[in-house]
């Protein structure tokens, strides 16, 4: 496939490139220049004309673009950038679109404070933080596009990217933890899954390793995408012997 990666120079992007480059033709884009042997372009995802130009000749878009803090830019990237990428996918007659986002684009405090074994089928409640709201709106735009156009949209939900070897100073919550290389493998699974096997044109998947609290089960990603995380991250939650 010819694959366009938006936000290819972020934290996850280089891992996605590594996971896909032996199997697909890549066009890697970001706001700043990228050091890669693949076809590259500087693209501001909040500008539809730039996204449309980068999407020409592509079969799939992977949206890894993100902005967390600046009010105007966050909505330009996380919300309108997603909208622009989906418009380009429709204009180019693509059949598959991969979106990525944090847990709170779907799961906000109303769930996090009380619930366990949370399902991807929950009503979205991202909460009120800037990042959560702007990404949550992007996820809702994905759902609406899947209803209006023959485009399969697979949204992969992450939270904390961790190195396989534990950092003893890292005391963050382990909810939805995954190594970056396993996260990239999940993207590869979403690229290669047979669209006819998907339950609907809009599917959301929690991408996490096999964590003992099972707060965000990865069963759907395993069953539907064939995702099998290799980095179990036990060092973060087991006591030393």
What is the level-2 CATH architecture name? 3-Layer(aba) Sandwich
H/I helix tally: 7
By DSSP, the count of extended strands is 9
Rounded to an integer, what's the Rg over CA atoms?
17 Å
Strand order of the largest sheet: 3-2-1-4-5-6-9
- Largest sheet geometry: 7 strands, parallel
Q: What is the fold named in CATH at topology level?
A: Rossmann fold
Q: What's the CATH H-level superfamily name?
A: NAD(P)-binding Rossmann-like Domain
Q: Decide which structural class fits the backbone.
A: alpha/beta
Order of helices and strands: EHEEHEHEHHEEEHEH
Q: Can you tell me the residue ranges where pLDDT is under 50 for at least 5 consecutive residues?
A: none
